[in-house]
Each structure stands twice: as structure tokens, then as C-alpha cells.
Design a protein that fits this description.
By secondary structure, this protein is an alpha+beta fold. The chain is 36% helix and 23% strand.
């Protein structure tokens, strides 16, 4: 565009196309935009899951999510500083999924395995954002 404006005579009478792209977009901004899109599409979800604070509970939880086709990205295990009863814990799990319907399948699989859970980060599952 700068060349077109600086030297219009060089392009006079010619068909000219200019490609405009976001090549100068900040990488962190782009990353944030992409992440928000994945969350809106239900392809990444944060689930809050209530577990009994006993050995193997995190392993069982992981097995259920994996068997349902979810890929765990992050785990936040809150047992000391969260407002939960003794011998209970809240686990926030960030999971890659196929879509919002897949999120519901994972929540159902967790319920069938005895884990209460709810989506914290999707707009269309369980009244989330």
C-alpha cells in the first residue's frame, strides 16, 4: 500500500492487487484470540470436578476423560485452599475436545463414574459463560 501511495504513476493503467494481512499482529494477542475461539467452539473446556481426597482418584478421573476421548491439558488440584469439605477436593481440568457435544459426553461419562462435574468455560454447556 505504501508503494501505491508513494508512486501512483508506476501503477497507472495497470491492474493492481494488494494483499493485506495481519503479519504485524502481536503473537500473544493472536494466541489469546485463538484460545478464546477454541473455548467458544467447545474445543477446549475447563471442568470443575468434585473428587474424594483418596489415592488413585486423579488416576481414575484421567482414565474416564481419556476413555471418553478428551485430552487433558492442565490440572488444578484444590484441596487445602478451596472451600470444600474435609476429605473432598475440587479438581479443575482443562480438556481438549471435539466440540460442545463432546464436552457433554465427557460430563456424562464422569457422572456415570461417580464424579460430579460442571463446565466452567463454555457458553453452551451447563449454563457456563
Amino acid at each position: 500500500m505504501a508503494a501505491l501511495f508513494a508512486h501512483p504513476e508506476r501503477f497507472q493503467g495497470r491492474k493492481v492487487a494488494s494483499i493485506i494481512c495481519g503479519g504485524n499482529i502481536d503473537v500473544r494477542l493472536l494466541s489469546g484470540v485463538l484460545a478464546r475461539g477454541l473455548i467458544r467452539d467447545g474445543r477446549v473446556v475447563r471442568l470443575r470436578i468434585e473428587i474424594i481426597d483418596q489415592p488413585r482418584q486423579l488416576a481414575k478421573l484421567s482414565e474416564v476423560i481419556g476413555a471418553a476421548g478428551g485430552n487433558i491439558i492442565e490440572v488444578y488440584h484444590q484441596r487445602l485452599f478451596a472451600d470444600v469439605p474435609a476429605k473432598r477436593a475440587d479438581v479443575d481440568v482443562v480438556v481438549e475436545t471435539r466440540n460442545i457435544e463432546h464436552v457433554q459426553e465427557i460430563i456424562s461419562a464422569l457422572a456415570n463414574a461417580g464424579f460430579q462435574s460442571r463446565a466452567l468455560s463454555t457458553r453452551s454447556v451447563d449454563g457456563g459463560i
